[in-house]
Amino acid sequence: MKTKLIAPSLLSADFGNLERDIHMLNRSQADWLHIDVMDGRFVPNISFGFPVMKTVKQHAQKFIDVHLMIVEPEKYVEEFINAGADLVSIHYEACTHLHRTINLIQDKGAKAGVVLNPSTPVLLLEDIISEVDLVLLMSVNPGFGGQKFIENTYKKIAETRDLILSNNSTALIEVDGGVNLENAAKLFEAGADVLVAGNAVFSTENPEKTIELLKI
After folding, report:
1. Known catalytic residue: 36?
2. Which residue of 81, 126, 173, 204 is most buried, as measured by CB atoms within 10 A?
3. Burial profile 138-173: b = 16 or more Cβ within 10 angstroms, e = fewer
């Protein structure tokens, strides 16, 4: 996969016109569609479930990137893959048997990612980094869109890149939270491969142009 990927988050789309917004993303230079799944337990919010996931799959022409912000993700990863997920990312903090669940995702035909909350240190991934396809660094505390970017993320990107290189891993680095036109280039320069953007895309008058600018 090429780097400098943009993954607009459907959490910031117009839920009343979801099909319209998906078609817009299909036309755009977006590389992935990012779907935030929240259960009201791991994070203080509830979002998409399987019916919405299946609807997205019917209309999307892009790679579908599913971020599970849920407890016991191992119970649901297979159903999300069956519903159309191309990549499933699970939180280090929510998964007791991380290695087993990463292998389950990959055995079912999807790519597997591991997610770190802002306060979780990168070094905890040392024993799993060679197994995963992606590391998702949360640059806000998960659960809500529109939060302010946490500046320590740049340091964590560098640490993650060092860990990947030192273990001959091929994992991509994804950043989610507070990404916008002001920091996108700096995040790519720091070593990020994939940027999730929600409000920065959908709150603008021309989301397609914004996506194009985020990739520059």
Report:
1. yes
2. 173
3. bbbebbebebebbeebbebbebbbebbeebebebbb
